Structure formats: structure tokens, C-alpha cells
Predict the 3D structure of the following.
Amino acid sequence: MANRARASRVCLGVIATAHGLKGEVKIRCFASDPTALTAYGPLTDETGTVNYTVVRYRENKGIVVAALEGVRDRNAAEALRGVQLFLDRSRLPATAPDEFYQADLEGLPVRHVDGRALGTVIAFHNYGAGDLVEVEREDGGRFMVPFTADFVPSVSLADGLRIKADDEWIYSDRRSRERS
């Protein structure tokens, strides 16, 4: 994956499923403040060609329930399941010196806290229990660690990430292939 100095678009959320019969959708919002879904203008799909305007929204048990312009029934809402919602980075506010958007970290180098080079950040995931950072090692293998201060004590746009993880975790995919 090519190192990107700054991502041109930032994923603010993903449509999880339909909600109710009138075309509302549940959105898993990745922004720290759900008002970001409406504050900066229309969102787009991954290709940047389809616009989605949030007409109204509310929070319900940690999920954003939103009405999108033009989505009038449950069938139309169900068809949007899995659509990622992006915003042009230029429309977002600047970050403080110690803040960043996760998209800015993709492509950065990853080192162990002992200084060993481990690979490159390729993605972030959240399966409901917190953010995970996915790292691709130089040998092509991949591993994930929780994106918490315990596992990732240092994050720098200039220097990349420093992680704390045992070799068993970092190279677990190798061992599973060797056993097969």
C-alpha cells in the first residue's frame, strides 16, 4: 500500500441496516461526535459518485438512526446496507497537534517499542469491541492489535506507530500456516 501523506477523503461511518418501515437507516458513526454526519454537507459513497444527505438523525443506544434524502421505505434502506459514508477531508476541521484522523495513519510505518520495524498500517477495523489497527508485515503477513494506549503507546504522523505486542501475536499467522 502506498504511503499517503494525508487521505483526501475520510470515512465517517457505515450504514449498518434499515430501521423501521419509513426508510431510516442505522449508521455506525466513526466520528467522535455524530453531528459530523450533518455538519459538513453531503456524504458520498466509497467511489465519491453517490451523495447522501442526512435529513435528520438521532442517537439510539450508541448507534445513529438517520433519515437520508430520497430513501423513503425499508427496501430502499436495506439496499444501502454496508455502504461506507465518506467526506472530503478539506471540509473537516483541522486537527490539534496531538490529534489525527485514522485515515492519516494508513500507510505509516509501524515499529515495536524495542525499535524493530514491523510493517505498515493498512486499515482500521471496529467489530464492536473497540478499534483495531491492522498491520501488514514486510513478509506480507498481517496482524491486528487493539488501538489503545496499552498496545499503541505512541502515534506520530512523522514517525508512525509504536506498538507493544508479543512476537506470538505479531507472527501468529505464520504459526497457524506451519501447523496446517
